[in-house]
Amino acid sequence: MDRRDIPTQPHADVETTLLGPILLNRECGDCTACCTELTVKTPEFAKPAGTPCIHLCDQGCGIHAVRPRICRTWFCVWRRVASLPDAARPDRSGLLVSLNFVDKPQTCLEGVSIHVRMLAGSDAIANGMAAAVLDAVCDQLVPVWFSDGAEKMLMHPDNDVAGFVLSGEAAPAHLQDEVAAWRERYGVFGLNR
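^ that's the sequence the OP posted. Answer follows.
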């Protein structure tokens, strides 16, 4: 499964639990980043990552009133996390942030995670937006990955904690509680995949 897949089954309860409800004061507006960047694989609609949706037109979604269920129920993290600045909307920031669900993760830290994707042509690293977004989403017990189009990197938990979580080795005293919390939450995905 492509790590950028939108899940075929809604995960709204998990998204709401981990990220909070949809913020009423945030609208997609002219942003259509998800309509191009993400893979969609559902029975009613499919498209590959990096390819504009066939329904995307100059005015946005050409079938907005009757769009597929996945398009009506999926929201990027900017629509849910109030600590992200307004400028972090994907079309403004050059970053698309989503909660990902991977059926067969390579490690337990990929099963359910936040993925911050840098969009083509983005200057989010140079202008500091990437750092601001990462600061806003690396504050809870949810793994955070960052990809710049060429490489995917684990940003949270930090390398020391991740190493102990994945290895199963005993953590030093100052990391024991944090490592135990990560293992408890993500052990369901298998620690050494």
